[in-house]
Amino acid sequence: MEYPLLPKQMPERIKKVWKKSNLVGTGIFLIIGIGVTAFLNWLDVLDGISAWSVGIYFAIVLIWSVIAMLLIPYRYQFHRYEITPEDLSFQDGYIFRSITHVPINRIQHIETEQGPFLRKEKLMEIVIHTAASSHHISGLDIEEAVQLRQQIIELVKVAKEDV
User: Counting C-beta atoms within 10 Å of the first and last residue's C-beta, which end of the chain has fewer, N or C?
Assistant: First the structure.
């Protein structure tokens, strides 16, 4: 049996955001590794075992980055959402897949966010808050995000009136 896919998918431009985020994260870990290596070298404690440890650290960071980059197209296939009058559904995960359903009447408030990478690609993120947690729909077109936010607000109003 195939795992069901929700109908709404993010724009293709979200892949660029994921790539840039991955590169920044890799850069940060490489800079930290370089800093620690320079500090250990300055203290003259970078002997054989420590040098191997540093080499393994850099290898892990680079391998992790390459794997994350290679999995972006696959990740894109499973990053989806759906809105019904009863609930919001979020699908994510590319190795361990999950679908989370949030009842409309449990939503407390909605935020829109836009970091520098999303802004450059003219994308936006919606954050849906419940009493227990928050759920993100990242990588929506700005117009779609505004319309989706308004649609969710209207659904919440109707659900709250019915209670």
Answer: N
Strand (E) or helix (H) holding 39: helix 14-42
Task: State how far the Cα of 68 lies from the Cα of 61, in Å rounded to an integer.
Answer: 11
Write down the pTM of the prediction: 0.85
- Say if CB 106 and CB 131 are below 8 A apart: yes
CA dist 62 → 4, 40, 90, 128 (Å)? 33, 21, 30, 34
The b/e string for 130-145 (b: 16+ C-beta within 10 A; e otherwise) is eeeeebebbbbbeebb
- The letter for the amino acid at 30 is L
Tokens of residue 67, six digits = 């794997």
Please report which helix (H) or strand (E) contains residue 143, including its range.
helix 142-162
3-state secondary structure 44-95: CCCCHHHHHHHHHHHHHHHHHHHHHHHCHHHHHHCCEEEECCCEEEEEECCC
Average pLDDT (74-97) is 89
